[in-house]
Each structure stands twice: as C-alpha cells, then as structure tokens.
Specification:
Elements: H1 14-17, E1 22-24, E2 31-33, E3 70-71, E4 78-79, E5 85-87, E6 90-92, H2 94-98, H3 116-125, H4 134-147, H5 161-192
Antiparallel strand pairs: 1-2, 3-4, 5-6
Helix pairs in contact: 3-4, 3-5, 4-5
C-alpha cells in the first residue's frame, strides 16, 4: 500500500519513507513527517526471514509461530522481527504504534510524597521548646500550611487537620509575638512619660 503525500496525494517513494523522518515529495516538494511500519520495506514476494520459535521460547503476539525478538515498551507484548517498530529509542508493537501511544507521556508512578501538613506542624510545634525560635518558625509554618493546602496529602488517605492545627499554632505564636512587642513598646513609652 503506497503512502500518499499530504499535499498532492501522490505516492511517496520508498527511499523517502525509509528515513523515518521528513519525507520530501518529488512531485510537489512538500515535506511530510512519516512513520511507516517496517513490513512496508520487505519484499512482498516472500515471507520475512524470521526464525521459527523453538519449544519454550517466547513467541510473537501476532505471529505465534515466530520467535520474539523484543517486547513492546508500552504494553509489553512480545513482537517478532516483522512486527517490531523502533522509534525514539524504544521498541513498539504495531497496535501501540498505530494507536499513537508513542505520543503519550511515559507515566511515572509516585512512590513517595512530601507530607507538607506534617512538616508545617513540626515547624510550628518544635520551636516551642526554645521559644525565641518561634519568631522565625511561626511565619514559616503558616506559609507552608497555607501554600501547600491544596496539594495531595499522602499516598494513603489523610485529612487536613495537621495543616489547620499548624496554621492555628502559628497564628497564636505570631499573635503572642505581636502582643509581646506591643507590650514592650507601650511599657517603654509609659516609662518615659
């Protein structure tokens, strides 16, 4: 089956398709991005030289009698030499490649997560042992609690009570510092007058 040009619809020559990059149409000069299944390049006169699978060897998903040479990087199906499509440094089966799965971003599974609610609570409570540090830690705890409020909490189900408690403690500490500074300023002003 010939691959047509995207502008003039004339068949593109095989030497242009073999590059797996931009194919230049000799008729109209249009550049087309072409990704062709490798079976197009094999001679139609005979079967492709793939080895028959021996007893106990992995076989191709689509050709059960043929020995598998790789597995699809997307779905994991075993593919023979005829079915394997090498693209972007990976091997794809025909189904995933034609479905456009190669365009999807690779999914990375999350195995850990920063627990900002616990961090905010620790930053708010730990400096209470050495109260002068609350002058710095209270605004930091309040920032962490409010900034990361909408972030996913954990890989397991948790509630936001830690963030709310950290914000409440931080506000109390900030209020205590504000009251203490106001008291000192007013006391110093009353002593002069």
């Amino acid at each position: 089956m010939p691959v047509p040009c995207n502008r003039c619809n004339r068949p593109l020559p095989k030497w242009e398709l073999a590059g797996q990059h931009a194919a230049l149409c000799p008729e109209c000069g249009a550049r087309s991005t072409v990704r062709v299944f490798p079976a197009l390049f094999y001679a139609p006169s005979g079967p492709v030289a793939t080895e028959a699978a021996a007893e106990g060897e992995a076989t191709c998903f689509d050709h059960p009698g043929k020995r598998a040479v790789a597995s699809c990087s997307r779905c994991g199906r075993f593919v023979c030499q005829l079915c394997s499509v090498e693209f972007k440094g990976a091997v794809w089966c025909a189904s995933c490649f034609t479905a456009g799965e190669y365009q999807a971003k690779t999914m990375e599974f999350e195995n850990s997560r920063t627990l900002f609610d616990s961090t905010a609570l620790i930053v708010a409570v730990a400096p209470l042992l050495a109260w002068p540090f609350t002058f710095i830690s209270a605004p930091i705890a309040l920032f962490i609690a409010l900034r990361y409020w909408n972030r996913p909490l954990s890989l397991v189900r948790r509630w936001r009570w830690r963030s709310a408690l950290a914000a409440a403690i931080a506000l109390c500490e900030i209020g205590g510092w504000a009251w203490g500074i106001a008291y000192v300023v007013l006391k110093a002003g009353a002593g002069r007058g």
